[in-house]
Amino acid sequence: MTTPMVDGGKSLTEEVAFLVLTGVEVFTMQTGFAMLTAGAVRSKNVVNALTTNVFDCAISALAFFVMGFAFQLGTPANRFIGTGNFALAGLDPDLLVQFFFHWTFVAVSTTIVSGAVAERISFTWYLIYAAVYSATVYPIFSHWVWSPQGWMSGRASSNPLFDQGAIDFAGSTVVHLLGGVSSIWGALALGPRMGRFPASGRTSRVRGHSLTLMALGTLLLWIGWYGFNCGSVYGFNSSVQIQVTLSDGTLSGLNIGRTIARCAVNTTLSACAGGIATLILVRIQLQTSHLPACLNGLLSGLVAITAGCGVVEPYAAVIIGVGGGLMYIICNNLICKLRIDDPLEAFPVHAGAGFFGTLMVGFFAREQYLAEAGYRVVSWGVFYNGGGRLLACQIVLVLCAIAWGSVTIGLFFWILRATGTLRVSEEEELVGHDYETHGSAAYPEGTSLSGLEDMSQRITAKRSFDVVVDEATPTHHERYRAASSNSSDHAHDRD
Predict the structure, then answer these.
(1) Which of 8, 32, 92, 431 has its CA 20 to 30 A from that of 248?
(2) pLDDT, position 237
């Protein structure tokens, strides 16, 4: 019995093992998202944040199993959508690992929205959103970019966009920009949290309760990002050895090892550059090293490099990381001026940096690196005299992501807004989701967490010249009783 071989001698077993291990690493990003979200919300909403993150993973897995994978990579397929392998029926057993690996990406993109709608969205409607997004919105768009038959794919088997195809190596646009665009529509449909933008015109910071959890979540996301970017070398590649003649007359072709190493180095450099650039900018702007902003700047560097991690030079990764951090600052200031409430700043991090990073591929992609990553080599970075086709493809890619997310999830959220059921009641928002929706609290009653949280918020607000929205009285039970005594809808006792 012989073992199938791919990529010049590597066995199929090795490829499957690599995808499973990197897929598990990507899945650890869900732990990072859970910790980041839990830390960024107030203590009365921590259980809701954790439950939301756990169950959007579960919902996305089943939705992707039933429909999503078929739309993304099912066969037969046309240039716009897959039409077979629903519920994995008839799928080649050798491709089962592709379902697992791609699901981890679906789960990441789905979770992005949770940060923008935190502390006010109906738990039930959020789970329904997760099902719709995972089953249809993400898979169809992903098919356009990552399927060999996709009309925008840089690895398309025939007739790609502008005869070149767009390059989104691991998902700056497919995962992050699409998720970020969806998140801003959710935030707009829900409106701001109570007290976030008072009638006086001042901006009130509704600060999270744990910088510790936010820092832990960011580091876990950073770890998972190596699986995200390095795993994409196999996850989105046909693994067929292709030899191409470069513009200087030399031969080049698929080189998995070099591309994985390049991804790891560029991911590291861009993250560090994004974090340091944001630290400097925030220090200048606020005269303090505001940790949440610095953490988001680091994440923005990771988002920005995801599109080109396998096809750009290390110096370009530094530039892209700095640009990602700058885009985060610009977009965050913009949504604040527009009075849009995005608790975790999901739109600036994922949409802003994803948009920037995707476009930068059109400037910095190296011809040889495109060949080594398995892409078509008709055009490459403008800065290397590669013509403008690739840049044009990148522009089309980001515009399509914005349009697709707006037409689908944007419409979905606004229809729900019209029903009046998308947002929780004012009473539930005041008391907190934890007791109203989940009947429990993240911290034991009687701890000093609420007082410490309030003190921390006021100290930070004094330094940054912001107004802070007060948490209500000392304990969850007392907040609940106070709200219940003023409402005829709550005559029962939650003791």
Answers:
(1) 8
(2) 62
The model's confidence at residue 211, banded by pLDDT at 50, 70 and 90, is very high
**pLDDT at res. 466:** 45
Q: Tally the domains of the chain.
A: 1
Residue 435 counted as domain residue: no
For every residue of 203-249, DSSP letters joined together read: PEE---S-HHHHHHHHHHHHHHHHHHHHHHHHHT------EEE-TTS
Residue predicted with more confidence, 349 or 480: 349
- Kindly report the backbone phi and psi dihedral angles of residue 252, in degrees, each rounded to the nearest multiple of 5, phi listed first: -145, 165
Residue 433 falls within a domain, yes or no?
A: no
Contacting residues for 196 by C-beta, under 8 A, at least 6 apart = 203, 204, 206, 341, 469
Query: Does the pLDDT value for residue 200 go beyond 80?
Result: no
Please tell me which residue, 472 or 277, carries the higher pLDDT value.
Answer: 277
Q: What CATH code is carried by the domain that includes residue 65?
A: 1.10.3430.10
Round to whole Å and give the CA distance between 285 and 302: 23
Q: Is the pLDDT of residue 351 over 90?
A: yes
Range of the domain at 93: 8-419
Reading the block at residue 151, the tokens are 């009309």
Q: Is residue 457 domain-resident?
A: no
pLDDT number for residue 485: 47
pLDDT at residue 141 tops 60: yes
> pLDDT band at 371, cuts 50/70/90?
very high
Q: Tell me, what's the pLDDT at 134?
A: 98
How far out from the chain centre does Cα 289 lie?
A: 25
Using CA atoms, how far residue 305 sits from 92, 324, 364, 401, 417, in Å, is 33, 8, 11, 17, 35
- In this structure, is residue 341 part of a structural domain? yes
Closest CA to 403 of 149, 141, 190, 148: 141
Secondary structure in 3-state letters for 154-179: CCCCCCCHHHCCECCCCCHHHHHHHH
β pairing state of 5-6 and 10-11:
antiparallel
